[in-house]
Target: DUF3784 domain-containing protein
Amino acid sequence: MEYLSYITLFFGFYCMYIFYKLQIKRDLSANGMLPREVDPGKCKDKDGYIKGVAVPILILGVVTALYSLVDILRSRLEIPFLTPLMWALMAADLAVLVWVVFVLRKNNQKYF
Model:
């Protein structure tokens, strides 16, 4: 099941890329977090949306990448102390994911 760790690692880096596109380029069109039926050009307050969404997406990306890196190291090197760390990061990743979903839903309703 190590290939799933690589997929989650890619997702973590993708979230960091979305943060880059939001913060640096101010581009909502590359945001994979918008619903399909939403037109990015019809955002009521682009800066407010970016301010409300960018940091949670970055936190999700970092936590997901850390979790998948620890899981890859644990499965490759079989270091015993990495297993509890992996489970803690998995729980943190799940909690951050739920938090980001609520933040995205709130900001999508507020600004679109």
